[in-house]
Design goal:
Elements lengths: L1 H11 L10 H9 L4 E10 L10 E2 L1 E12 L2 E10 L2 E2 L2 H5 L9 E10 H8 L2 H9 L16 E10 L4 E10 L4 E14 L3 E11 L2 E2 L2 H14 L3 H4 L3 E10 L3 E10 L9
Antiparallel strand pairs: 1-3, 2-5, 3-4, 4-6, 6-13, 7-8, 8-9, 9-10, 10-11, 12-13
Length: 265
Amino acid sequence: MELITIILSSLLAIVSPVGIFVDQAAENAIRSQLYDVEELRVRVDNAPNFRLLQGKVDQVRIAGRGLYPRPELRVALLDIETDPIDVDVGDLQQGEITLDQPLQAAVHIVLDEADLNVFLQSPTLAEFFEDLSFDFSSPIKARNAKRYRLSNPNIDLLESNRIRLQANLEDQVLTENLTLVLEAGFVVIDGRQLQIINPQILIGGEAAPSQLVVKLTEGLFEQLSLRRLEESGIVARVLEFGIDGQEIKLAFFVRVEPSSTLLGN
């Protein structure tokens, strides 16, 4: 979800303070939204040019390689192609962004397995995994609430839209380390829900309790829904999703309504 927000913020940042769109200014605006960029090309199409002064542009095309929305997260490829953009010049001159028409764009993203593992090993994610606590008993008892902790996660991208996530599961009571292996497939439902299929969890080489599998699946189901964006005036639909063993490829359509809270007005 954060990546979608960064993409949209970058598109909105293309509008300069005086309401003029130019290729270099647009590229600089996008670079300012990112921590680092290996390669970035931006093309702004508009005819006739006086429409630029009216806050209108026909199309923006962005092609990026090696983009870093966070210092530890690399996006291997990002391609964006927008529909016409129309902003209110009067509001823009007052420092506000108001869309006269919804902003629509097609987005193509590629994430590399090696880059994902760097992100999983980053301090940000390490702290997140350390804060996770598990108890495999039922019902959960307060004294066991922090018995298990995840560390050293690693992801393998498999064929047929499946992934394998492996991590150490530290038993804080017995001071033992077990290996946790989660393997699951993914399928897109109605263009806005990434659903987990056939999840399998092994703990120390043995199948995990079914209630744990259900609990984990239900939690991820909510996190992987694009419906969460609609509350902020953003509609997103997945057009293509695939895992080929080395990369995750994702293409989606996104629409920002003039009332979106992303505009920050």
